[in-house]
Specification:
Helix content: 40-55%
Order of helices and strands: HEHEHEHEEHEHEHEHEEHHEH
Strand order of the largest sheet: 2-1-3-10-4-11
CATH topology of the largest domain: D-Maltodextrin-Binding Protein, domain 2
Radius of gyration: 24 Å
Largest sheet: 6 strands, mixed
Distance between the termini: 78 Å
Oligomer: single chain
CATH class of the largest domain: Alpha Beta
Structural class: alpha/beta
Number of strands: 11
Strand content: 15-25%
Length: 325
């Protein structure tokens, strides 16, 4: 005896089967992305800056591995807030990415940004840079201990330049001298001006990232007194870390790529893989040696965990230093 399926049940079954097929064809697939549309990479630093040049090396490497160009657009201002705001409002389709850093946390906790790192999905870490304390080569201090002894003996004498109020180099310097119990004058400068003022003899020292200083160290104009990192920097292997002098200051600056929250996982995976291959290439390693950054790829999940840990660490540090709003 033949069983006849009721019409309503038949329609329901066919509809369910159809729905079950839709996601497979409608989901954005890695091999369909990016198509022929360009990918726009927002960089929150001025054209020609060390961070911008590094981002362009990354963009060039990614473009060679993808079917579309990766275009760098500089959106500067407000400690990175302008760039973060812009990208957070873009469609989560993988065509708007941001060259992010610890600044997502420092900008948020300093009150310049109304949202935190959770507005983005982490894609991959690209590089790491360690802040350093530098003086002119003709300065009397040969190492960090001599500089701190002088600073403690003459409170308010030392003028130490940084890259601006609320910048990574600002609170790196504040942490170092706060823990050491040395009273110095923090002098915030605009982009590139801290180094100019040090070379001109208008300040005694700077806390900066290696990329800004490496050529001047090689030329014999500057001396690095210490590295604020968990281990010695391979760019300056002969320079001791602050931790080696029992000053636990480790404030490495990471940089990486993030996308607007809700970007489909296959697109994130495609970007992640492309970044990994670029960062591991000899061309990118050579760029790091020349520019003063360390290639340091981390995949999406581990990068997201790092951002969350660093956010908590920076929030507490900025609170302790009176920089948190």
């Amino acid at each position: 005896m033949r069983t006849i399926m009721p019409k309503l049940l038949l329609r329901t079954t066919l509809f369910a089967l159809t729905i079950g097929l839709v996601p497979a064809s409608a989901q954005p697939l890695a091999h369909d992305y990016p198509g022929d549309r360009p990918i726009e990479m927002t960089v929150m630093f001025g054209a020609g800056s060390a961070a911008d040049v590094t981002a362009r090396h990354l963009a060039d490497g990614m473009a060679r591995l993808m079917t579309a160009p990766v275009v760098v657009v500089n959106r500067t201002g407000a400690g990175g807030a302008i760039g973060y705001r812009y990208v957070s409002k873009q469609s989560p389709d993988g065509h708007s990415i941001i060259w992010n850093s610890n600044s997502i946390s420092s900008t948020y906790h300093s009150g310049m940004l109304p949202f935190d790192y959770n507005a983005f999905d982490a894609v991959a870490r690209v590089s790491v840079e360690s802040p350093v304390l530098a003086v002119r080569a003709d300065a009397p201090w040969k190492d960090l201990r001599e500089f701190l002894d002088d600073a403690c003996a003459h409170p308010g004498k030392m003028r130490v330049g940084n890259s601006g109020t609320g910048s990574h180099t600002h609170f790196s310097a504040a942490a170092l001298f706060g823990i050491a119990g040395a009273e110095v004058i923090a002098v915030p400068f605009g982009e590139g001006q801290a180094l100019v003022n040090l070379l001109g003899g208008r300040i005694e020292a700077v806390v900066q990232l290696p990329a800004a200083l490496v050529e001047h160290v090689k030329s014999g104009e500057l001396r690095i007194l210490t590295v604020l990192a968990s281990a010695r920097d391979p760019i300056f292997p002969e320079v001791a870390t602050a931790a080696e002098l029992e000053l636990p200051v480790s404030l490495e600056m990471w940089r990486g790529i993030a996308v607007p929250k809700g970007t489909p996982k296959p697109i994130i995976e495609r970007l992640d893989d492309t970044i990994r291959r670029t960062v591991e290439s000899q061309a990118f390693v050579d760029a790091g040696s020349a520019l003063g950054f360390r290639p340091a790829y981390l995949p999406s999940r581990e990068f997201a965990q790092l951002i969350a840990r660093d956010d908590a660490k920076l929030a507490q540090l900025m609170l302790d230093l009176g920089l948190k709003k």
